[in-house]
Design a protein that fits this description.
Elements (H helix, E strand, L loop, with lengths): L2 H9 L9 H19 L16 H5 L2 H31 L4 H16 L2 H11 L1 H21 L3 H28 L6 H30 L1 H7 L1 H25 L1
Helix pairs in contact: 1-2, 1-5, 4-5, 4-8, 4-9, 4-11, 5-8, 6-7, 6-8, 7-8, 7-11, 9-10
Length: about 250
């Protein structure tokens, strides 16, 4: 989050005939460092398990897992949708410059990953539904600040909240997915859910830039409210169901 945008600021015009090419080359070079990190990573092999393997359809149709997939897929897709379009809006349309854009993206990425240091504790204390509800609120505020103004500070607040929303929704959903299966079921369930999540992200990435050019910044942000409301209604449905079940037990 800190190193990437700073390198972008320095190198995006380094090769004057091909703007941004040097940035991509530097980004590729940085990834080589991962090889040295992975060389010292030792993941123990899973122990053999005698758990019963349930049909995939039975697992995926559980209400909690549907919420988890919706939360992770929509949370990640919305982030990709907004973040893909934002640099174009900042640099090419609002003419705020590449340095401003780099600073905004820098804090956006910090907001995405820094909360993971304590998101697990929030899940333990508040529960997944509460964490996801906070993620939805962050996205609503992100869209609000993105539509009320187009200064550096509006974009900064909007993208920072977008990063927080991503963390709460994606981590909250991933936590449920990880806990919903036994060791024999995990590989196939993880594969299917990842396909759904990252397929949605790829579609949202293509959609973001195209909608920005065709219908404009404000309209594309208003369209982003549709998946947010879908997720909100499903979270509310589970809140009501859990409340009614607890009342019946009492």
């Amino acid at each position: 989050a800190i190193l990437g945008p700073e390198l972008s600021k320095i190198y995006y015009t380094f090769l004057t005939e091909h703007i941004y090419l040097a940035t991509y080359l530097i980004a590729g070079a940085v990834q080589v460092l991962n090889l040295f990190v992975l060389a010292f990573l030792n993941i123990p092999k899973p122990k053999k398990s005698i758990n019963i393997k349930r049909p995939l359809s039975e697992i995926l149709l559980k209400k909690e897992l549907i919420l988890a997939i919706l939360s992770a897929a929509l949370g990640f897709s919305l982030m990709s949708f907004i973040m893909t379009a934002t640099p174009i809006q900042i640099v090419n349309i609002c003419k705020l410059g590449n340095d401003v854009n780099a600073n905004i993206i820098q804090w956006h990425v910090i907001a995405m990953f820094a909360p993971s240091l304590f998101t697990g504790q929030l899940i333990n204390k508040l529960g997944n539904l509460t964490l996801m509800s906070l993620g939805v609120i962050c996205y609503l505020l992100s869209i609000y600040f993105g539509t009320v103004g187009q200064t550096e500070y509006h974009f900064w607040i909007s993208l920072f909240l977008c990063g927080l929303g991503w963390n709460f929704l994606f981590v909250g959903g991933s936590d449920i997915i990880a806990k919903s299966t036994n060791p024999r079921e995990k590989p196939i369930v993880q594969g299917v859910t990842d396909f759904i999540i990252f397929g949605s992200v790829a579609f949202a990435s293509f959609l973001g830039g195209n909608l920005l050019i065709t219908i404009g910044w404000h309209s594309m942000l208003y369209l982003a409210l549709i998946p947010i409301f879908i997720l909100t209604f499903y979270i509310a449905f589970l809140w009501i169901r859990n409340f009614s079940h607890s009342t019946m037990k009492v």
